[in-house]
Amino acid sequence: MKEQNPIRESELMMTRRQLFGRAALGLGTAALADIIGPDLLANSAGQAGGTHFAPKAKRVIYLFMSGGPSHHDLWSHKPKMREMFGKDLPEHVRDGQRITGMTAGQKTLPVCPSKYKYTRHDNNDQGVWVSELLPYTAQVAKELCVVHSTFTEAINHDPAITYIQTGSQVPGRPSLGAWLSYGLGRVNENLPGYVVMHARSKFPEQSLFNRLWGTGFMPSEHQGVLLRSEGDPVLYLKNPAGVTGRDRRAQLDTLAAINQAHYKQFADPEILARIQQHELAYRMQTSVPELMDLTGESDATFELYGEEAKSAGSFAACCLNARRLAERGVRNIQIFHRGWDAHGSLPKEHESQCKDIDQASAALITDLKQRGMLDETLVVWGGEFGRTAYCQGKLTETNYGRDHHPRCFTTWMAGGGIKPGITYGRTDDYAYNIADADGNMIRPTKDKWTPGTMHIHDLNATILNQLGIDHRKLTYRYQGRDFRLTDVHGHVIKDLIA
Amino acid sequence: MNRTLTLFASVFAVAFSTTAAETPVDFSREILPILSNKCFVCHGPDSRKEDLLRLDSFEGATSDLGGYRAVDPGDLAKSEIIARIHDADDPMPPEDAEKQLTAAERALLKRWVLQGGGYTEHWAFVPPTRPTPPSQDHPIDAFIENQFTGDIDFAAEADKPTLARRLALVLTGLPPSPELLQSFLDDGSSNAYEQLVERLLADPRYGEHQARYWLDAVRYGDTHGLHLDNKRGIYPYRDWVVRALNRNQPLDEFIEWQLAGDLLPEPTMEQRIATGYVRMNPTTAEGGVIPAEFQAKNNFDRTETLGTVFLGMTMLCSRCHTHKYDPIEQTEYYRLLAFFNNTAEGPLDGNKYDYAPTLKVPADQAAWNDWTHLESARDRLLAKAGAKPGESLADLAKPEGRLAKLGLQAEAGQLIKQRTDATARFTTTLVARDLAKPRKTRLLDRGEYNLPTGEPLQPDVLKAMNPFPEGAPRNRLGLARWLTSREQPVVSRVLVNRIWQRVFGAGLVRTPEDFGLQGQQPTHPELLDWLAVELHDSGWDLKHMLRLMVNSRTFRQGSALRDGVNDPENKLWARGPHYRLDAEVLRDIALWASGLLDPHMGGEGVKPYQPAGLWKALAHPGSNTKNYVRDNGQRLYRRSLYVYWKRTSPHPMMTLFDAPSRESSCVQRSRTNTPLQALGLLNETQRIEMARMFAERLLKERATDAERLDLLFTLLACREPSATERDACAQLLKTMRERYAAAEKDATKLLETGEVPRDKSLDPTSHAAWTQLSATLLASDLALMMF
User: Fold this and answer.
1) Which of A361, A377, B360, B608 is the most buried (most CB within 10 A)?
2) Packing angle, helices B192-201 and B160-172, rounded to 10
3) How far apart are CA B606 and CA B642, in angstroms?
4) Is B62 on the interface with A (CB under 8 A)?
């Protein structure tokens, strides 16, 4: 065995670190090299937040409503639909829209006005109408940027949710979160950089898939880490029965000695990196339980989020965790809440769903604001598509269902350099089509941005933009193609940016 | 500059090229990648405007653009391309283009033009010819050595124990047994190494290990993959792959059966099982989906997977438009797709396990062996009876008739019963079958299922490659023959590159998924071609190729990084492989070392320990993979190849260590290094169970701590511990013994992890201490790394 040359060692380390972009901070160096040329790489690699331009937001919290919340019953106040109750949706409104196999066979497509009462709430512009299902959210209207004209092409859950989260309807691409992890790296080494939570629902009707926080063809280190309410909060976090932290320390010391010996023989810097990962894991065993321990939270906090926040796995608890993660420097947080796929008993299901999420979503905004963190935290709320203006199944005054609707749905954003207290985009009298200022139907496509509309690629481009990333420049080469989250589409919607 | 020279344009060009641009530029290697990456987005195969300059051919580049030419053979220095790439006011690429040229690239382009602006075909589309190795050495070593620069030579050969470990891991995915290791170390003959290679190639573990790479590529999974992600019965395909590799079925036949086994004359059961390849795409039956949409999507997936697995090309781009970089027109994509558009299964899976068409087949390798015996018993009996074609065992068993007088009724009857019993235990597997009346395939505008345009397209192959084999049927069988024909330029290169990758840890082409214009160049182009031709000439003999590689000096080098060799990615191959082993191998090594490994081969995927709730948190309430029902007994300890693969939520110990989801093709896994892996290694239930059984084995098989440590190191690293390692281990043992002696309850708690009962005759303190040491060393690089 040869003695090691420390200069060579450090050179090897540098080469590897720079080449493979394991630096804790900074834009994925593989991507960076292509953008700015290798000459600048050395200077930029060590800088904090190696983004394309100064970011408005340091982090994103994405409240994902899986299944497709009904914009009709939450955000789209369309009094004219009341007059059309039970009548067939006019042909010119449907305008050739393809319909899923679930309602394609229905003899009629009866117009189904929402049974819920709407109230106009002041914001910083013309005000925003919010239904009685979201009383708490309505209270923070002045913070919200409500986009009524979000749209997609997919009409079924699996393709649609895969599309909005990965930019492709077909599995195999990195998720939004993976792109952010790749682009931004992480700040707090003692916690995962990208955290995903699953909030409890009484109607967990649609599936989720690992691919929604997976990495596709990108290295798997960028995958979302599940913060769980059952068992270990992070998989395999806890020592086995009969093993204490002290025991683990002793094990790690021996492990390091063995690996050091291996390094002496083989000089591969990956070995040293692995020793570091074991130390990180060891610290995570302290930092994660500390994160999950809510005993230090005040009564006021629980009043804000609701008592539900004490119940692990509730949406409220997830929101509180999200705030705690944000405080600890985690930049990339997603909460998935299932159960919005209301084909039959929409009122019963949506009332329960809204009860799950309303108070806590608003609390999160308020809490971030009062801690001075809202400006630097982008909060996003939305699902993979909206729901139809016509009823699926039997329409009564008190009960109805709605099928999937891709042509328009409502999403909101708050904080993170987004204009607070505005609405964006319009829909026609049936909230079926996106409309221009005069209420005339328009038919935007993903290929070219139409003002007043937000394709899901535009949403993702805007999210990336707020975090200092140019969606056209954050690329990862696979099979000879420089892939992007937004494919060859996406437009940063400047109108939404403060 | 001398003005008079312009009168003699060609003279000028030659003069210039010999002075200012002395080294000849390699178009295919240096220029084409730049053009492809930076220019083809507008000026490439997909150029939308008829009159726009095309830079993907010499004709295009030199065409008259109205008094000037991008590349002007008559006056190279006046070529417009040179002017425009240097033009500050009107630059190319335009200022707003996403990709700009670097100064070095501009200089290269200029040199290329001044040297004549010649074009050659992209290297991968030219069929390989066998280059002459530059020396008399082993051909691999000759090519490798030829590219060593300066005073670099091969690294010294690794020591024998290390070589034994490396060989066994590469070929079988497990370390060598202590007996095999010892016999190799004791064997002083000159061909001891080669003998070891042969023994390992003959080990049934070989097929299991090699199959794994193929299953990643073809995206094998045990569930449908979309929406409900219900169970799918197709594991007989996985087991067939293992068998085919173990018997070293020629790879051309291996490919043919998978693509078109059903189209062979009187296909055998195995040939039909192999067509599971065609059925491997993820499928759905989500309420409300439009069948035509998924007919299209299923076909896209098959076409694009074919591109990745065999052609090393992305077909994706040409689904919606002519490829930006590679010479694939959109029509060609749909012609290729037409080969697959004719299969009989419906576009939606019905959430069914036996999504038709299926075939009834034996359920695991043992059942398969039994069945083949029954098949040959039938054949023997019929032959003995002199049965005519069409006559069966039933005819033999009849009390009267032509065959009755032979007196074989009893024997035939018994065989019939055995066969009936065996078929009663058959399972089903998804297979391919073509419709009698072909579906029409049309180009889909922008890849939209509801925008078919133009005339129906006949199935055909890519124009940039070899023509469709003469006389071959225009179906999947013809497609398979095209893939494996001698003139096919990429398939053999793509396959040998992946074989090289699994032996050496990285490919000769570092982008195994892309041999197109945007892919990386091979580090050793001649070697790649030599190997590709060798694959053909050997009769597509995989074991032969592996033998060639592992017997090379290149493979046998020590794997330490070297002083004076600045090659962090080992592109010179001036050292042996050093990389973290795959998820499955990590688990298998520990199962094997602990003596828990169950040798049972094949059958329905097994479900080892998994944290509760992982599936439920994601699954649709109607899914039949909503609840993870853990297996018991021996099924917990099967080889990882057999771990159940739910595509939307594979086992976390697999995905933590970079196993793909198998929703799409994967021909190269990433190798990450994360804290979550560290947690898994030291805390996961099965890891602890394996550690305590490993400890139990050491305690029982060896009498002293020193001997135990020797055995532990021998099993994991094929060597005894160094003094430093011995000290570090002794320290931990001592600490743990003291600590568990003081709290025996903790010791017993630790020893109760996992299902297999512990040997209560062992002292729990000692057992627990050894468990901790075993767990630690199973998480160390001795058990994690290829070296």
Assistant:
1) A361
2) 20
3) 6
4) no
Decide if B683 and A244 are in contact by the 8 Å CB cutoff.
no
For the record, the structure tokens of A357 come out as 């999420």
Query: Ramachandran region of residue B317, left (φ > 0), alpha (ψ -120 to 50) or beta?
Result: alpha
Task: Say what the pLDDT of residue A205 is.
Answer: 83
Rounded Cα gap, residues B545 and B185, in angstroms? 25
The 10s digit of each residue's pLDDT in A222-251 is: 999 999 998 999 999 999 999 999 999 999
Please tell me whether residue B101 adopts helix, strand or coil conformation: coil
**Residue the block writes with tokens 């997909």:** B46
Name the minimum distance, in Å, from the CA of A106 to any CA of chain B: 12
**Taking all residues of chain B, what is their mean pLDDT, rounded to a whole number?**
93
Question: Which of helix, strand or coil describes residue B286?
Answer: coil
A400, A347 Cβ separation under 8 angstroms: yes
Cβ contacts below 8 Å, chain A against chain B, sum to: 279
**How many residues are recorded in chain B?**
787
B591 touches A: beta carbon within 8 Å: no
pLDDT band per the 50, 70, 90 thresholds, residue B296 = very high
Query: pLDDT digit string (tens) for B770-786?
Result: 999 999 999 999 999 99
Residue A380: half-sphere exposure toward Cβ, Cα within 13 Å: 29
Instruction: Assess contact for B373 and B350: CB atoms under 8 A.
Output: no
Would the pLDDT of B14 be above 80? no
Measured CA to CA in angstroms, residue B371 lies from A177, B208, B366, B378, B660 at distances of 50, 20, 9, 10, 34
Q: Do B621 and A204 touch (CB under 8 A)?
A: yes
HSE-CB at B251 with a 13 A cutoff on CA atoms is 27
- Which of 3.40.720, 3.30.565, 3.40.50, 3.30.1490 would CATH assign to domain A52-225+312-496? 3.40.720
Residue of chain B minimizing CA distance to A225: B676
Token code pair at residue B629:
């029902």
Nearest to A273 among B673, B725, B735 (CB): B673
Nearby residues of A138 by Cβ (< 8 Å), 6 or more positions away: A119, A121, A130
Distance between first and last Cα of chain B: 59
Closest partner residue to B561 among A158, A231, A267, by Cβ? A267
Strands, DSSP E only, in A66-199? 118-121, 128-131, 144-151, 194-199
B122 token code pair? 């992209």
From residue B62, alpha-carbon distances to A193, A273, B83, B108 in Å are: 52, 52, 15, 18
Q: What is the pLDDT of residues A444-493, one digit of tens each?
A: 999 999 999 999 999 999 999 999 999 999 999 888 888 999 999 999 99
To the nearest whole angstrom, how far is the Cα of B470 from the nearest Cα of chain A? 31
> Which sequence spans correspond to the domains of chain A?
1-50, 52-225+312-496, 230-296
How many other C-beta atoms lie within 10 A of the C-beta of residue B147? 17
Task: Pull the structure tokens for residue A158.
Answer: 């699996």
For the whole model, what pTM was predicted? 0.89
A47 has a pLDDT exceeding 80:
no
- For residue A131, the number of C-alpha atoms closer than 13 Å in the C-beta half-sphere is 24
Stretch among A230-234, A354-358, A458-462, B323-327 having the lowest mean pLDDT: B323-327
Pick from A364-368, B8-12, B56-60: least confident: B8-12
Q: What residues of B are in contact with residue A156 (Cβ under 8 Å)? A: 227, 284, 286-289
Does residue B6 surpass a pLDDT of 60?
Answer: no
Q: Which residue of A has its CA nearest to B745?
A: A242
Strands A409-414 and A377-382: antiparallel
Comparing CB atoms, the residue among A158, A219, A235 nearest residue B676 is A235
On whether the CB atoms of residues B643 and B605 are closer than 8 A, the answer is yes
* CB-CB neighbors (< 8 A) of A250 in chain B: 731-732, 735-736, 772
Q: What is the pLDDT of residues B71-101, one digit of tens each?
A: 988 888 889 998 899 888 888 999 888 789 9
**Predicted-complex ipTM score:** 0.90
